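User: What would this chain look like folded?
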Amino acid sequence: NRTLSITIFSFLIFLAASFEAQTSSAASQVATYGGLLHAIREVQSASQARIEAAVEAEKVREAWETGKLIDEHILLYKERADYGKRVLERLAKDLGVSQTELSFMLQFARAYPIYSPANKLSWAHYRELLSINDSKEREELTKRAAQERWNRDQVREEVRRRQHRTEKPVKLPEITPGPPNTYQI
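Assistant: Here's the prediction, encoded as structure tokens.
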């Protein structure tokens, strides 16, 4: 709750500063009713975009913090076999969140040990990036996706392309037929 309050407070300060900067140019835009209507729609659209960005950034932060808490707890009991799996099962039930989602959050905190709020990537982006096992390659792709403002589908496609490139073809053993009505064990 404290983190959310700080985020909302910071967002309100940002909005106030933006409002002051736009006030001087707004006077010329509202000389006619059509100009006023257009200016208000622009303000609403910009405000909605900022709200959505703030919500998405908070989702990423929540996922990372949740994963970090789970990881720290599991490390306390690492000597117990299957403890992490049982914790995820119990948390999923008690929190009403899928075990898969909690597992992604745990992987996220482990893959990105230092939270970086400056990235412009969504939780969906990070979920796709988690399938890259090489940390340097994942970090490189994370930076590239943020710089080039890729959507989730672009990240998914690049991840698949890289995985396909690194996979080696599996050679199946040759099977020779045996006598009829017998099966090899």
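The two ends are 60 Å apart (CA to CA). If you want, I can go into more detail on any region.
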